[in-house]
């Protein structure tokens, strides 16, 4: 069985940033998957699952309400390795084009001080599995990374 493209990226060279993971063709339309990498794989602690769950809720809500992008957002969700998330959008924008969106989303998450969206028992499969303080901390760290060194291309082996 062939390895999927995301498993062919050399994770020993990967650093936090935004990367184009893949582009799929759906008839005449495109769907682009972005690797929103928050942590250096296998070198630094991952985002704790409770914090990642909170980031997922806050950022997904932000993205689906952003006036410029809401109609292009297909999916936002964490990677199983907890070092980042995947963003899938309609079309084929470059990573540089989503950088301002990601900075806004993570700054929003870092400053979030309200009831986490979708945390009632009827809204979420694990509604108590959240950590707003750590989500804010991780979001602030990542927003700073995006402002200083967003890394748009996967490293070459």
What's a concise summary of this model?
The chain is an alpha+beta fold. The protein is 31% helix and 20% strand.
For the sheet with most strands, the description reads:
4 strands, antiparallel
For the secondary structure, the number of strands is: 4
**What strand order characterises the main sheet?**
1-2-4-3
Estimated share of beta-strand residues: 15-25%
- Overall geometry: globular
The ordered H/E elements are: EEHEEHH
- Nearest-integer average pLDDT: 96
Rg measurement, Å: 15 Å
Distance between the termini: 22 Å
Number of helices: 3
Structural class: alpha+beta
Query: What ranges have pLDDT less than 50 throughout 5 or more consecutive residues?
Result: none
User: In which range does the helix fraction lie?
Assistant: 25-40%
Describe the structure.
With 157 residues, the chain is of the alpha+beta class. The protein is built from 3 helices and 4 strands. It has helices at residues 49-63, 95-111, 132-148, and strands at residues 17-26, 29-37, 73-78, 84-90. It has a 4-stranded antiparallel β-sheet. Helix 1 (49-63) packs across helix 2 (95-111) and helix 1 crosses helix 3. It is globular and about 40 Å long.
Topology:
Elements: E1 17-26, E2 29-37, H1 49-63, E3 73-78, E4 84-90, H2 95-111, H3 132-148
Antiparallel strand pairs: 1-2, 2-4, 3-4
Helix pairs in contact: 1-2, 1-3, 2-3
List keywords for this structure.
4 strands; alpha+beta; globular
């Amino acid at each position: 069985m062939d390895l999927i493209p995301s498993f062919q990226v050399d994770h020993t060279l990967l650093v936090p940033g935004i990367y184009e993971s893949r582009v799929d063709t759906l008839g005449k339309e495109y769907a682009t998957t972005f690797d929103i990498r928050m942590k250096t794989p296998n070198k630094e602690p991952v985002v704790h699952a409770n914090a990642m769950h909170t980031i997922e809720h806050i950022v997904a809500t932000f993205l689906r309400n952003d006036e410029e992008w809401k109609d292009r957002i297909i999916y936002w969700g964490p990677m199983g390795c907890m070092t980042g998330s995947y963003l899938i959008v309609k079309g084929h924008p470059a990573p540089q084009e989503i950088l301002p969106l990601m900075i806004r989303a993570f700054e929003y998450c870092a400053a979030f001080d309200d009831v986490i969206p979708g945390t009632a028992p009827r809204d979420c499969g694990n509604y108590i599995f959240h950590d707003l303080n750590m989500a804010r901390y991780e979001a602030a760290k990542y927003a700073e990374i995006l402002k200083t060194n967003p890394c748009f291309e996967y490293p070459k082996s």
